[in-house]
Write a structure and sequence with these properties.
The chain is an alpha/beta fold and 329 residues long. It is built from eight helices and 17 strands. It folds into three domains: 82 residues, Ubiquitin-like (UB roll) (Roll); 90 residues, Translation factors (Elongation Factor Tu (Ef-tu), domain 3), CATH 2.40.30.10; 127 residues, 3-Layer(aba) Sandwich (Rossmann fold), CATH 3.40.50. The radius of gyration is 20 Å and the shape is globular. The chain starts with a strand and ends in a 12-residue tail after the last strand. The protein binds flavin-adenine dinucleotide and FE2/S2 (inorganic) cluster.
Length: 329
Amino acid sequence: MTRVRFDTTDVDVGENESVLDALLRAGADVPYSCRSGVCQSCCLRAVEGRAPSAAQLGLPPTLAALGHFLACVAHPQDDLVCARPGALAGAVDATIRDRESLAADVVRIRLTPNAPFDVKPGQYVNLVRPDGLVRSYSVANLADDDGFVELHVRVLEHGAMSRWIATSASPGTAVTLRGPAGSCVYVPGSPDEPLLLAGSGTGLAPLLGIARDALRHGHRGPIHLMHGGRTAAALYGGDELERLRRSHDNVVVTRCVLDGPGHGDVVEGALDRVIAARLPDLTGWRVYLCGHPDLVRTLQQDTFLAGASLDAIHADAFLTRADAPAAPS
Ligand SMILES: Cc1cc2nc3c(=O)[nH]c(=O)nc-3n(C[C@H](O)[C@H](O)[C@H](O)COP(=O)(O)OP(=O)(O)OC[C@H]3O[C@@H](n4cnc5c(N)ncnc54)[C@H](O)[C@@H]3O)c2cc1C
Ligand code: FES
């Protein structure tokens, strides 16, 4: 049994229990979201004792070297004294410059970092609210060229962060950006490689970022951008997709709805089936998958079975608290 101290909480970590579960059980106020080692919301820093290396996977080496770790997947061998990440390398203050509704339940915010913030299109950042609430959002634009970071946020009925963004955050609101993280980024060097960018809902945000980056690098191979939603109302971003398609011969856009009917350029059918019908052989393709966790999981399997190699499939599942595994009882 190991013991963990954080703020005023001092607690034993049970067998099969993570540091996060132990601290929450003892009433500590630790931010978290996915509980699966993905979103990095629960990042803490070991100030005494050794951070478990398995809980440092995916963190930038500089942060890992400074003792940062993800509390939700941390099962320490030694007693630990932990602190909040504090002034992290890679964390910058930022200001919301504008907020715009893109669909009934999707809001776009654009943020100006107050210091240089190096993020690639398609990666995700952790947005930290002034009270410490943290959630991950993927970057839709060429932030280095534009000078701002664009995020698309689906507004959930009881969502703490997304509701706040939709109703309370406004131009001038100060937040912090942490990260970036994630490997859903364009890989330069193979300009003729065919690309499949597929996702649902606000999964469109990183896919747009990756497509824009590929085109900026002069990508010549076909770029198939496929966006699915439950209903036509969920398919936002049609104008932007049409602009990309018109201005680049190699961009093919497919939009589909699960609960039809299709109309105009929107086809009826589940995204995985539409992809299988239109692109049955993905040998030699690079694949990017973002959005709802179930769809991302299905598409990872399907695209692999259709011939894409494992190291050419990049995926970000948008896990929320609703997807988080329950704490052990
Ligand atoms: C890598 C990554 C990238 C992401 N990128 C994006 C993006 O670009 N755009 C985007 O819109 N989202 C993205 N997400 C999801 C995002 O991080 C948030 O999880 C999402 O916005 C919901 O946050 P929230 O605070 O509004 O909702 P929360 O308050 O976290 O609640 C989420 C849902 O869970 C329910 N819930 C809350 N607590 C519990 C509980 N204890 N048990 C069961 N259900 C519960 C709520 O009712 C709600 O429906 C991404 C996630 C990851 C991991
Ligand atoms: S990484 Fe720990 S809560 Fe998401």
